[in-house]
Design brief:
Order of helices and strands: HHHHHHHHHHH
Number of strands: 0
Structural class: mainly alpha
Helix content: over 70%
Number of helices: 11
Distance between the termini: 17 Å
Length: 189
């Protein structure tokens, strides 16, 4: 299966996919189902905004793999310059006010969770973020906080630009769930 995927994508599979696909019933499938729900399930947030949240969280957690991967995935949904401006935290951010406030909160959640105060939540609420939308975005941030720590522990490096773009095309087409052939053919339980 990995050989077929390498031939189709013309790149070596990132280690994270190998770990996710091997013994997928124990680890990969539950994790990928969680990511699929957070990133592609029904939400107040657009797919591009959630990918920008994942990228911002990954930057704050200093995870080069997820930063490069989700930057490219966000760029598969909106122009990459829009993504870059959104991640700069400046007044030029093209994000809607709700997303801009939420991204700031998620970055602080990643960098300094003990430093969060009611004022941080108030800033997000004043931008017009409902309780449900707040919970959805925090779910993205917490999910990527866990993934970032796992990939940092594995020493996963940033993807080369062509690898990131190839992965982004795959994720845009197939989503985050472990593909059915992998679920069926994977070793282990």
């Amino acid at each position: 299966m990995f050989g077929m995927m390498r031939r189709f994508s013309k790149i070596d599979l990132p280690a994270v996919l190998k770990v996710t696909f091997y013994r997928n019933h124990f680890f990969g499938t539950p994790l990928s189902d969680l990511i699929q729900q957070a990133m592609r399930g029904p939400s107040f947030w657009t797919v591009a905004e959630r990918e920008i949240f994942a990228t911002g969280t990954s930057q704050a957690n200093e995870c080069p793999f997820c930063t490069s991967a989700h930057h490219a995935i966000a760029g598969a949904y909106v122009d990459i310059q829009v993504v870059d401006l959104a991640l700069q935290d400046g007044a030029d951010s093209p994000l809607r006010p709700e997303a801009r406030a939420m991204l700031g909160f998620l970055r602080k959640l990643a960098r300094d969770p003990d430093g969060l105060t009611p004022a941080d939540t108030d800033t997000v609420r004043e931008a017009g973020v409902s309780t449900e939308a707040f919970d959805e975005a925090v779910w993205v941030g917490v999910t990527f906080g866990v993934i970032n720590r796992m990939l940092n522990a594995f020493g996963a490096q940033a993807l080369a630009p062509e690898e990131a773009r190839g992965g982004a095309k795959f994720i845009k087409a197939a989503g985050y769930q472990v593909p059915l052939p992998i679920r069926i053919l994977s070793r282990g339980t």
